[in-house]
Design a protein that fits this description.
Domain Fucolectin tachylectin-4 pentraxin-1: 5-137
Largest sheet: 7 strands, antiparallel
Order of helices and strands: EEEEEEE
Strand content: 35-45%
Number of helices: 0
Shape: globular
Helix content: under 10%
Number of strands: 7
InterPro entries: BG_Antigen-Binding_Lectin, FTP1, Galactose-bd-like_sf
Structural class: mainly beta
Function: Acts as a defensive agent. Recognizes blood group fucosylated oligosaccharides including A, B, H and Lewis B-type antigens. Does not recognize Lewis A antigen and has low affinity for monovalent haptens.
Family: Belongs to the fucolectin family.
Distance between the termini: 10 Å
Keywords: Calcium, Disulfide bond, Lectin, Metal-binding
Length: 138
């Protein structure tokens, strides 16, 4: 990461495949992963959370195309860290098929351009929880 890189996710718009049900739904909003708060304790409402489903995903729209240099994910810390095993990070300019053809794995170095950053968790009965997603670039 160079001195010119900044966390682009802070100004983006986040969405996810679905939302954990009450009484926890207010704690698991997609925006929580780009709020700048690295707190990994889910009950403090700074993490995302989906229900169990096939191929859950979370996405940030950076609103513009940027050159992405690195992405860092803060995982849930109070339990369930293994849920993120196998997660893929996709960067690109398309929403098609959670599209974005450049796939990397957590805490990866990138050298790609894109508007959308998607974290997808392949498999059935998976729950996706992210406590912070930082997308650096220019």
């Amino acid at each position: 990461m160079s001195a010119c890189d900044k966390n682009l996710a802070l100004l983006g718009k986040a969405t996810q495949s679905n939302l954990v049900e009450n009484p926890w739904s207010a704690y698991g909003l997609p925006y929580n992963a780009i709020d700048g708060n690295h707190n990994s304790y889910f009950p403090d409402a700074s993490c995302t959370h989906t229900t169990a489903q096939s191929n859950p995903w979370w996405r940030v729209d950076l609103l513009y195309k940027y050159k992405i240099t690195s992405i860092t994910i803060t995982n849930r810390g109070d339990c369930c860290a293994e849920r993120l095993n196998g997660a893929e990070i996709r960067v690109g300019n398309s929403l098609y098929n959670n599209g974005n053809s450049n796939t990397r794995y957590c805490n990866s170095r990138f050298n790609v351009s894109g508007r959308y950053v998607t974290v997808i968790l392949p498999g059935q009965g998976r729950i996706l929880t992210l406590c912070e997603v930082e997308v650096y670039g220019f």
